């Protein structure tokens, strides 16, 4: 058995052009079964709102459904965008999941709203709540901790006494500082924000402390996002990866669209003005045959000194996504 670091999966429940949201949710459930069987460490769903490309707004519902159809894989939010939610309500949802499915539930926390400003304002709390992010994380921690004698104020019920593991997500130096101060494991979003990955991870490790009440680990633990697509050949993988590249181009241009089919001429599909953005946006990637991807992924792991990698894969055909994860597992663990 290989001693390589654990791999996990980030799923945004992508909606492919020509398919429905129901199709995307069903494909996501199929991926959960595949990931459970193949030995991936965890499967996380990322909260996004008002998106035609992603159907992952209600992460707790997706987690619950996946838990019903899997046996061992850890399931969680990567993450819950805390500015959108009351800490008490988050604690109630995730304590309920913990009571229903046991110690397989993770709770990753993000500071961004996971949507556009107008939609953020339409959500319960709005963008102003980012100013109280650290306080909200502390409040959430206390709601998840066992109730204390004489405790005043509300208690998160059901699930009193359960402890759902907290993670801190980040794409900048701010998240790294918060994760270090709070003593939480840190997941860096290098799959879409690669520029600060070295600085943020170094800052987290150098400032990590385990003294604050929220601390859940004794030493730093880093996971980072990687764009991955594995196919039998480098050529096929590069072709299939053009779906993800078109998605990135749409983010740059503001063109909202579901996942597009792969193309032979990417430059013609996205235009010359955004090619540089797409390359930088997806700079942390491993794309190719199994041997190619293993070599690229090993280089990323060594470069960032990762404890775990969380990979995300976009394919217009969900069957090709499942195949990519199959090939990756076979090549990574043997």
Question: Can you walk through the features of this model?
Answer:
- The protein has 334 residues and is an alpha/beta fold.
- The protein has 2 domains: 1-164, TIM Barrel, CATH 3.20.20; 225-334, no CATH class.
- The protein is 43% helix and 15% strand.
- The protein contains 12 helices and 9 strands.
- It has helices at residues 21-38, 59-68, 87-101, 117-122, 133-144, 173-182, 197-207, 234-253, 266-270, 275-281, 290-304, 318-333; strands spanning 7-11, 42-45, 74-81, 105-110, 166-170, 186-188, 222-230, 285-288, 308-312.
- Strands 1-2-3-4-5-6-7-9 form an 8-stranded parallel β-barrel, surrounded by 8 helices.
- α2 (59-68) links the parallel β2 (42-45) and β3 (74-81).
- It is globular.
- The mean pLDDT is 92.
